[in-house]
Amino acid sequence: MRADVQLTTIERHIMETQKKYPEARGHLSKLLMDVAFAAKVISRDVRKAGLVGVLGLTGESNVQGEQVQKLDELANDVLVNVFNNSGLLAAMASEELAASVPVTKLTLGEYVVNFDPLDGSSNIDANISIGTIFSVLRMPRPGDQGKDEDLMQPGYRQVAAGYVIHGSSTMLVYSSGDGVHGFTLDPGVGEFLLSHPDIRIPDKGYIYSVNEAYYDAWSEGVRQYISSLKKPDAQTGKRYSLRYIGSMVADMHRTMLYGGAFLYPPDKTNPNGKLRLLYEASPMAFLCEQAGGAAVDGRRRILEVEPTSLHQRVPFFIGSKQNIEELMSFIRKYDK
Ligand code: P6P
Questions:
Q1: For a pocket test of ligand 1, which of 61, 62, 133, 248 has the largest count of ligand atoms closer than 8 A to its C-beta?
Q2: How many structural domains comprise the chain?
Q3: What is the pTM of this model?
Q4: 185 & 104 share domain
Q5: 247 lines ligand 1 (CB under 6 A)
Q6: Dist CA 55 CA 58 (whole Å)
Q7: Binning pLDDT at 50, 70 and 90, where does residue 331 land?
């Protein structure tokens, strides 16, 4: 084991963080521990997907009209089950489900959760990294039955957010407003151990991540920005690299650690881009800002976007502060 990996389990880290908030009753802590448990179960299924026939399609499609991979269903079922039995939620919404899921079992808690059970699922059969994304908000009317509008809150109201990435190892990265911390699953012990304390995104990075196949459909400002990255950086003379995995959790994890910019711009056919606000852009924006980065929709912070529907899409530009500021200067200059 690496010398800098502390034998701090995610449970211990969550409890240590809770001590900083004397008024806390431990409900958010327990919810985060439930997420960690669900992540272990999903990791077990993902790691053996190729062996137990859960690869391939279910033959059905989800509310997005996308082919549902069996692992998508498994991950969604695990999370719905764990959240339903937590006794902490009033409602939840999933990328896989058309409507929000009011919590019908146990008590109606004071939190709601939006989640993408397995983002990047189109890459499952190619064994490319995939992941779960979650966003925790307070229930505006504690004790009542949760409804869609209780989930449709702007991102600045999040109390916690995070992702699980199933790559060369399984990691859980989360923030409850006290910095961003990464934990690596030790499958032999079945524990997430603190491996990346207090993740800070570099102020500037030299990796940009975007699907350039849509280049001609982007706005002039985005095209001019991307074209500017094909020359050595004007200030430092450094060259950029393009890295695009096509699985947002993987592209985001690399951006959080190495810096740079991840972009999913709007285009002529998709005026709001492809990524979803509530359970993709908003939690990632929360994490990125907590790590010292920036996340915008081309006009304002992602965290300030007022949701109008559960599955709404949003233009998504996120990463190192300087890279995003530079992008915005091109958008202001060329996209009136
Ligand atoms: P494109 C995966 O399907 C996903 O939702 C994100 O994880 C990823 O960033 C994006 O779509 C890739 O989309 O259009 O580049 O294939």
A1: 248
A2: 2
A3: 0.94
A4: yes
A5: yes
A6: 9
A7: very high
